[in-house]
Design brief:
CATH architecture of the largest domain: Beta Barrel
Shape: globular
Number of helices: 1
Largest sheet: 5 strands, antiparallel
Strand order of the largest sheet: 7-6-5-8-9
Oligomer: single chain
Strand content: 35-45%
CATH class of the largest domain: Mainly Beta
Helix content: under 10%
């Protein structure tokens, strides 16, 4: 579903941030070559077209890579940093929640959600159970 084209008065980064802060996750799609784009850009990195628009992805994807960042418990404890391949064909860096860092595995299916804290949105992922989309 296409949401808006990026020739708004706001730049693409500002549009993306505003959507996240409202709890919405958007990626871009090139209207010329149909390639998916993330992180938002003014020009398609696939074909060079400036005819790109935002759309809401399904949000499902696969863990491509994961690492654990070690911290003392009083500093918040360990957490994972993961590269996620969305089914739409883009890769982004985030984290998988609802699991301990050592339980996040390459190849694991996940689903995006926007976590809004103090008015700022952040894309995080939750594990999907087997059989879920």
């Amino acid at each position: 579903m296409t949401v808006a084209t990026s020739n708004s008065a706001l730049g693409v980064q500002a549009q993306h941030t505003a959507a996240l802060d409202q709890g919405r996750f958007l990626i871009q799609r090139c209207h010329s070559c149909h390639g998916a784009i993330y992180f938002p850009r003014e020009v398609c990195p696939h074909c060079g077209s400036d005819h790109v628009g935002f759309e809401e992805p399904k949000g499902t994807g696969t863990v491509y890579s994961v690492t654990t960042v070690r911290r003392k418990a009083d500093a918040g404890g360990d957490y994972n940093v993961s590269l996620i391949d969305l089914d739409e064909g883009v890769r982004l860096m985030s984290r998988v929640e609802q699991l301990s860092p050592d339980q996040v595995k390459i190849g694991q299916r996940v689903k995006a959600r926007v976590q809004v804290t103090n008015g700022k949105g952040l894309v995080v992922f939750d594990p999907l159970k087997e059989g879920q989309a």
